Amino acid sequence: DQQVKQNSPSLSVQEGRISILNCDYTNSMFDYFLWYKKYPAEGPTFLISISSIKDKNEDGRFTVFLNKSAKHLSLHIVPSQPGDSAVYFCAASGGSNYKLTFGKGTLLTVNP
Amino acid sequence: GAGVSQTPSNKVTEKGKYVELRCDPISGHTALYWYRQSLGQGPEFLIYFQGTGAADDSGLPNDRFFAVRPEGSVSTLKIQRTERGDSAVYLCASSLMGGPGELFFGEGSRLTVL
Prior knowledge:
The structure holds 2 protein chains of 2 kinds. Chain A is mainly beta. In chain A, 0% of the residues lie in helices and 60% in strands. Chain A has no helices and 11 strands. In chain A, the strands form 2 sheets. In chain A, strands 2, 4, 5, 9, 10 and 11 form a 6-stranded mixed sheet that branches. A 5-stranded antiparallel sheet of chain A has the order 1-3-8-7-6, with no helix packed on it. Chain A is globular and about 40 Å long. The N and C termini of chain A lie far apart (38 Å). By secondary structure, chain B is an all-beta fold. Chain B has strands at residues 5-7, 10-13, 19-24, 31-37, 44-50, 53-56, 65-68, 75-79, 88-95, 104-105, 109-113. In chain B, strands 2, 4, 5, 6, 9, 10 and 11 form a 7-stranded mixed sheet that branches. In chain B, strands 1-3-8-7 form a 4-stranded antiparallel sheet, with no helix packed on it. In chain B, strand 9 (88-95) and strand 10 form a beta hairpin. The radius of gyration of chain B is 13 Å and the shape is globular. At the A-B interface, strand 4, strand 5, strand 9 and strand 10 of A face strand 5 and strand 10 of B.
């Protein structure tokens, strides 16, 4: 039973365009959400997070949107760059529960 | 180093053997986590340490898996009687205080059980 779902295994976009990565969750106890980026043979690196008290958080080219009623969040990358090509994981935690539950990831390819 | 360090980076072993994987967290980080990432999956939680004690080991798949952190810094994940299904990348992460928020991950130890 996957509590965090990333339904698109892969996404390909052109350099300079917007990349939108989606994530759905089922556990209503989740109240903190994170996106991690992972290059091959490296560990995941933190990208951006959002608390459930917000519906948007922005950091440079990266913006995360949270729709609590739909249990859906998305990561927008604008403009996309070839160096953004990586696997992106959505993760969630709930209440005093420190454990992160990860989705399966989406492989983003940004073509020059 | 400044980041989370994991050794070995690669380990190939035979079914039934014993394996130890080591994690050296970021200095000063009291919280340490082990995750396992199988092919095509996201990282899955195994165990969480706050200081020297295992605060939650509910993710350990069975009693062949054990982890220690005797001095509240370096941690060792121990796998007895390895099975082919144990093949995965074992990721260690640390954070300053624990609780929800950013975890800093190491590069992982890739375990292959033949």
